[in-house]
């Protein structure tokens, strides 16, 4: 029996990352799950016969130790990230901005650099980066997040050119509204405010996004799905959606 290809999912302790770990295991990958809440990763790893390794993408030493634990890697899903705060630029909180840029941008850079040698050595590597529709346009009160997601997207899209001729595919996933802990984290644990984001709408689920990632990852090696934008039917842009009256 041949050994299954290895997929790394960052931010696999909840939401899109956890669902992606499950979907990739079903598609035949051995999944390495990384996040700070490694206990949650370990529970999912047990369920899917994967491996959990602690990972803080904002800490260079943690990323180095993580990469050392993953000598082989065919697929990297850069998913760890999120938003903090929802203020106009005039009232922007520098700490929130630093968190968003450290996690979404520098974190993606660190993990990608650390695993690129293994992805190249696999002879058939693939980097999937979960950006957002926030990487397509600005919206009011969102400059810290849209700025970070644009920067993360530029990193990813630049690699698409720089790696031409090398055996690595690059896929950017740009989801609209997905119901996860995303809004709870953004609003500092305020559940009522987080619930309001999804009021009157059927949002995407983490499984919806995971399905698309697994589809991209299981195309033949010569097929590169460059960018996939997915949104709930009721959402047109980050701030324009139809809500059923309550
Ligand atoms: P989520 O449930 O809050 O998941 C975020 C994940 O990122 C968690 O597993 C968290 O794990 C991990 N993470 C955060 N900081 C980290 C760090 N320093 N090191 C390692 N892992 C870290 O939210 P989600 O919606 O699934 O978000 C996943 C990705 O999708 C994010 O990049 C987000 O920006 C993007 N996205 C979400 C939506 C949406 O509407 N939900 C839409 C578009 C794009 P730990 O806390 O355990 O470290």
UniProtKB/TrEMBL annotation:
Pfam families attached to this UniProt entry: adh_short (PF00106)
InterPro entries, alphabetized: NAD(P)-bd_dom_sf, SDR_fam
Organism lineage: Bacteria, Bacillati, Actinomycetota, Actinomycetes, Pseudonocardiales
Native source species: Pseudonocardia hydrocarbonoxydans
Listed SUPFAM superfamilies: NAD(P)-binding Rossmann-fold domains
Keyword terms of this UniProt record: Oxidoreductase
Similarity-based family: Belongs to the short-chain dehydrogenases/reductases (SDR) family.
Molecular function via GO: oxidoreductase activity, acting on the CH-OH group of donors, NAD or NADP as acceptor
PANTHER family: ALCOHOL DEHYDROGENASE
Protein name: Serine 3-dehydrogenase
């Amino acid at each position: 029996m041949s050994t299954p290809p290895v997929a790394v999912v960052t931010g696999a302790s909840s939401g899109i990352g956890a669902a992606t770990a499950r979907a990739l295991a079903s598609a035949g990958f051995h999944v390495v799950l990384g996040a700070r809440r490694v206990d949650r990763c370990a529970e999912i790893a047990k369920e899917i016969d994967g491996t959990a390794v602690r990972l803080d993408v904002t800490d260079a030493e943690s990323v180095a130790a993580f990469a050392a634990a993953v000598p082989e890697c065919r697929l990297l899903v850069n998913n760890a990230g999120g938003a903090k705060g929802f203020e106009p630029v005039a009232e922007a909180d520098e700490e929130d901005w630093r968190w968003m840029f450290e996690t979404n941008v520098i974190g993606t850079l660190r993990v990608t650099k650390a695993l690129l040698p293994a992805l190249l050595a696999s002879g058939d590597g693939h980097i999937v980066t979960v950006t957002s529709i926030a990487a397509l346009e600005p919206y009011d009160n969102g400059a810290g997040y849209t700025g970070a997601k644009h920067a993360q997207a530029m990193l990813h899209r630049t690699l698409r050119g720089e790696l031409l001729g090398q055996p690595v595919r690059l896929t950017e996933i740009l989801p609209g509204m997905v119901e996860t802990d995303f809004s709870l984290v953004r609003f500092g644990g305020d559940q009522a405010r987080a619930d309001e984001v999804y009021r009157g709408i059927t949002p995407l689920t983490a499984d919806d996004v995971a399905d698309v990632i697994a589809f991209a990852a299981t195309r033949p090696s010569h097929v590169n799905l460059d960018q996939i934008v997915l949104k709930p039917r009721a959402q047109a842009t980050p701030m324009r959606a139809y809500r059923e009256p309550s």
